[in-house]
Design goal:
single chain; 375 residues; alpha/beta; Purple Acid Phosphatase, chain A, domain 2; 2 domains; 15 strands; elongated
């Protein structure tokens, strides 16, 4: 029996353009902290090793600082770590894994799975990997590995691979992996667990529980399902028991509020965001639609400005129409030119079209400036 951690898609060195400079520094640090957290989990769980199923780095052109920080974090992991080159960081000419700086600073506990030959990692336990050697191979490297493998005999064998699987969304992708080929290799005794990378959401792919994506340990995109986890695997010839353990500290949240009709609808939303416990490590994409009065619209604008200062990122997409019913005197502070401008902007809002949102913003700004001038 063996126990290990399966993780993937660290993509160290990646950038998220929607994060500001300060937030991006926190995000970068969190990704290195995740490596140390994986090491702490491996120690607490008494794991024998860690496998990283591809895309350790965002590309082969990462900066020196990113590489050195990654290797320093890996140095602190108290068990052997096996890194698989993926499609982002293939083992091609100019690969980060072939660089002098990587060789000079690689800690002794780190091994790059540079060829598919099974490695004995402990008594009766082997790891075999299918490294990518280019960003677009003729077919997925794991298929060549499976063709060449002999049955493992009495050993337990973990296969580390990278790539999407064949399905309705990529039926003709030559780099995709047919899951039935992996399942057949398990039945043939060639492998006992397949540690997959590429998909950023964790998922079991077979009925026996021996073929898994781990997902990324820190969220990368808004459309991921339960990112921020690793797989803790108890493996024996008779079973593979996989437990999902949270590592990640960041959240990317998409929130949609439809058919807003007034302040009451906004109050609960404001309270929810105000009570959020991890604003500086949370990026929000907010979609709003409905009808609001002038005062509610202005309140919404103020709160959005506040939330943009508090959250790591706060993007807003609005489809809100102004209702002047709550402020019939909204333009009481406007003089002749201002009143004429307000009337023209109201007409553009009423007409709809591509100019309506800008006209609405301009009208709200005009009201605010007029009130400030009148004070």
């Amino acid at each position: 029996m063996t126990k290990f951690i399966h993780t993937s898609d660290w993509q160290l060195g990646m950038t998220r353009r929607f994060l500001g400079d300060g937030a991006h520094e926190l995000y970068d640090q969190a990704r290195f902290d995740a490596i140390r957290a994986i090491g702490g989990l491996a120690e607490a769980e008494r794991c024998d090793f860690v496998v990283v199923a591809g895309d350790v780095f965002e590309s082969n052109r990462i900066g020196r600082k990113t590489l050195l920080r990654a290797l320093e974090a890996l140095r602190q992991v108290p068990v052997p770590v096996y890194l698989l080159p993926g499609n982002h960081d293939p083992l091609a000419e100019g690969s980060v894994y072939r660089s002098r700086r990587f060789a000079d600073n690689k800690p002794d506990n780190v091994t790059v799975l540079a060829d598919p030959a099974p490695l004995t990692v402990s008594t009766g336990v082997e790891v075999t990997g299918a490294p990518w050697r280019s960003k677009r191979p003729a077919r997925n490297p794991v298929l060549d590995l499976l063709d060449a493998l002999e049955p493992a005999g009495g050993a337990l064998r973990v296969c580390v691979a990278h790539g999407g699987v064949l399905g309705p969304f990529n039926p003709g992708d030559e780099c995709a992996i047919p899951v039935d080929a992996l399942e057949q290799a398990v039945r043939d005794g060639k492998i006992h667990y397949v540690a997959l990378g590429d998909r950023h959401s964790g998922e079991q792919l077979d009925s026996a529980g021996r073929v898994w994506y781990s997902g990324t340990p820190e969220v990368v995109a808004f459309n991921e399902v339960n990112p921020g986890f690793v797989n803790v695997v108890d493996l024996d010839h008779d079973r593979a028991a996989v437990r999902r353990e949270r590592i990640g500290a960041w959240r990317f949240e998409e929130i949609e509020l439809r058919n807003l009709l007034g302040g009451d609808d906004l109050a609960g939303f404001f309270a929810q965001l105000s009570a959020h416990p991890s604003k500086d490590t949370t990026a929000v994409r907010l979609k709003l639609s409905g009808t609001l009065g002038v005062e509610d619209m202005e309140a919404l604008g103020r709160r959005i400005e506040d939330f943009r200062d508090l959250f790591a990122s706060f993007e807003v997409e609005e489809d809100i129409r102004l209702n002047f019913g709550d402020r019939p005197d909204a333009d009481e502070n406007l003089g002749g030119f201002g009143a004429a401008a307000a009337a023209e902007l109201r007409d553009r809002i009423a007409a709809g079209g591509v100019d309506a949102p800008a006209a609405q913003d301009a009208l709200l700004l005009l009201f605010r400036l007029a009130r400030e001038e009148a004070r």
